[in-house]
Amino acid sequence: MFARQALAVGLRSASSAGRRSNYVRTLGSQAQRLGRTNTGGSNYNNTSFGRGLAVAAAAATMATAVASVTKMEEAPTTTTAKPSTPATTNNNNDNKFYSIAADNNPPPRPELPTIPLEDVSEHNDEESMWFTFRGAVYDMTGFLQGHPGGAPRLLMAAGQDLEPFWDIYRQHFRGHVIQWMEKYRIGNLSKEDAVKARDFVHGDMFESDPKRQPQDLLPATSKPFNGEPRIETLTDSYLTPNNKFYVRNHLAVPDICPEEYRLIVKGKGKDTIKKKIYKLQDLKTKFPKHEVVTTLQCAGNRREDLHDKDHKIFISPHWVVGAMSTAKWGGVRLRDVLADCGLDVDAIALGEKMPPNGIEHIQMEGYDHDETGYTYGGSFPIEKAVDGLGEVLLAYEMNGEDLPRDHGYPVRVVIPGHVGARQVKWVHKIILSNQESKKSYQCKSYRHFAPDITFEKDLAEWPPARLDQGPIIHEQPVTSFVCNPPQGSTIGVKGVGGGIKKEVTIKGVAWSGGGRKVERVDVSIDGGTSWTAAELYKPISQRYNHHWAWTQFYLTIPLSEEIQEKLKRGEKVKLDVTSKAVDSAFNVQPETMAPYWNPRGIAINHWYHSMVELDPTLEAGQVQRSESEFGFSNTPSGGHFDRQWGLGGWMVDPKHDNDPRKERKDAMA
User: Which of 298, 311, 316, 302 is nearest to 148 (CA)?
Assistant: First the structure.
């Protein structure tokens, strides 16, 4: 409540102040610092009023856009009329290709006019949004609703220079972003104004994030933090250790005092359910504890595979391959909480009653928010929530321990069989509604479009012509990948007495969404020319169509006579190791990404190729890993990145990137 009150105060202040100014930016930085001030030994930023102060000044920078943002959340598939384009924007940039160097500097465009900085600062609302970056000026008004990070963040930076913001959100530094922005370029700044434009610091709301061990997770982005484990560790045990469970954060990690935690459960419409507010202790004492073992996978796992010279992905993180893990979750069943609020969950689940007031969806909102106060959220069908075997949890334990902060402490939602994006962490609100969530994370970011739809052509100026042809993802397709031997490794095959080992052992993981069972995994060491069924390992029992957890597989494959002869002659032999899984609906992984490539980079399940080498001079059992400076062998299918992989999973930018080798060495010292 206090956070929203402070937000309203910030909006009123900005309304009276008029256009943005350096004073507003200074106020924003001061408020964010105030929100992080420790008082009385507690983290003030994580009280309701502290969070409100932290977002109030940021909200003040976007007061003139409140009406359009509200309209966007209520009806995200419509756009406001765009103002007439200034004469300076008619540069026929759409079909031009501008080469962007690895340093991300915009190309020289001397034919464009020089625009005073004070003119740029006047274009700071939904009617006209201009930005600067390293001396270039862009009119990106039409991009308001197409921004993957949401319209509020774009409005937060409107009329200003992007570099202080991108100093935090470094996922923008990958060449193709600046290259694409050239279509919106309308002019240049003078050298003096280019320096002046970026002379401010954007407050870093990630400073209070938990400390992480760099040897555990490969960062795909740093702020917000997203990291994946070494894939060779995924077969070390059936359950993934908490410190090696992949982390997907959309925003900064809240630091919530368990005594202050509140879960609000309510319904839209009269007499849908009785509104109740639960404390953490209420959840632990008023309801029976339930446990479920389930695999979580990010919707965009292996997104880097879809980003190459012919295709560009404009949403982050660009996962490599390891954004999938399995844990045993403990908590209370959501259906029990809904029943406590007066919903007849049994009758609805059995089809004896329809949900009241046309309710179809369970909306969720988390405590995590961006600089403008915009919170993370999503929704899923109510049928899953009321199903007595659906096992949707309000979880407070992970592998027998309290949830780590990165995984939603003190309470998160776990929806077995569903995509990771729907499983809201730090859950604050559960809302029964007749509509899906209007959050951009639900209605925009995780839609699956046809291969001929691109961000550049169709999605940048939202909505696309046929939004109905981009369904929102809930369940994921069948997938598998080889974990061992690791990608790019060299395997010793020298036997006792100088002989040659005649076989190689392959291990990996497989999973299918929606509770579908993995029935078989086929393995190949020649790139898919020949296949052999692997042995399956799943030490737990799960019901028909409730196979929430992955299946591990292993197979010892005899080497062909031809390979053995080469090894005997002392030659090294390269293997192309891959797998394909078949689930209980007899869905099978496709060979390539071509049939399903999509601009959001989700639901990726083509064959993953692990390139390894057999070495007859190394003792059998020895494995030499080909690791990057980060100490990880994770790479896209085939063993290489199409573009340079810098710190935080993106191209190195000389002005902003730190030395990852030094950081890792210091952290491990």
Answer: 316
| DSSP letters for 84-117 | PPPGGG-S--TT------TT-PPPP-TTSPB--H
pLDDT in tens, 40-78: 333 323 333 333 434 443 443 333 333 333 333 333 333
Catalytic one of 20, 109, 123, 172: 172
Catalytic-labelled residue, pool 248, 318, 407, 606: 248
Look up residue 20 and give its two tokens.
């943005």
Structure-token pair, residue 410: 């003190």
Q: Is 289 helix (H, G, I), strand (E, B) or coil?
A: coil
Q: Where are the extended beta strands (E) located within 426-515? A: 427-433, 479-484, 490-494, 503-511
What is the value of pTM for the model shown?
Answer: 0.85
Is 33 catalytic? The answer is no
Residue 155 φ then ψ, to 5°: -65, -30
- Which of the residues 109, 198, 230, 298 is marked catalytic? 298
Question: CB neighbours of 335 closer than 8 A, spacing ≥ 6?
Answer: 345, 349, 385, 386, 387, 388, 390, 392
What pLDDT, in 10s, does the model give residues 512-555?
A: 999 999 999 999 999 999 999 999 999 999 999 999 999 999 99
Closest CA to 423 of 509, 312, 294, 563: 294
Judged by DSSP in three states, 617 sits in strand
State the average pLDDT for the chain.
85
User: Residue 19 catalytic?
Assistant: no
Phi, psi for 260 (deg, rounded to 5): -95, -10
Alpha-helix runs per DSSP H in 127-269: 151-157, 163-166, 176-181, 191-197
Catalytic residue among 25, 446, 546, 600: 446
CB atoms within 10 A of CB 562: 9
Looking at 25, 109, 123, 147, which residue is catalytic?
147
Give residues with Cβ within 8 angstroms of 490, minimum separation 6: 572, 612, 613, 614, 615, 618, 623, 624, 626
User: Percent of the chain, pLDDT > 70?
Assistant: 80
Tell me, yes or no, if 44 is annotated catalytic: no
CA dihedral for 645, 649, 655, 658, sign (positive or negative) = negative
* Residue 102 binned pLDDT confidence (cut-offs 50, 70, 90): low
Axis crossing angle, helix 2-17 with helix 48-60, rounded to the nearest 10: 20
Distances (CA, A) of 102 to 166, 327, 472, 596, 645: 16, 40, 34, 30, 12
Is beta strand 573-583 parallel, antiparallel or unpaired with respect to 518-524? antiparallel
Tokens of 271: 């007499």
Contact between 325 and 240 (Cβ < 8 Å): yes
Check pLDDT > 60 for residue 668.
Answer: no
Q: Does residue 138 carry a catalytic annotation?
A: no
The owner of tokens 């402070």 is: 6
Compute CA 536 distance to the chain's CA centroid, rounded to the nearest angstrom: 30
Helices (H), 477-560: none
The CB-side HSE value for 406 (13 A sphere, CA atoms) comes to 19
Q: Which amino acid is at 599?
A: P
How would DSSP label each residue in 317-380? ----S--EEEEEEEEEEHHHHHHHTT--HHHHHTTSSPPGGG--EEEEEEEEE-TTSPEEEEEE
Q: Is 147 in the active site? A: yes
Q: Single out the residue of 591, 523, 608 nearest to residue 320, CA to CA.
A: 608
Separation CA 423–CA 415 (nearest Å): 6
Q: Are 507 and 482 in contact (CB under 8 A)?
A: yes
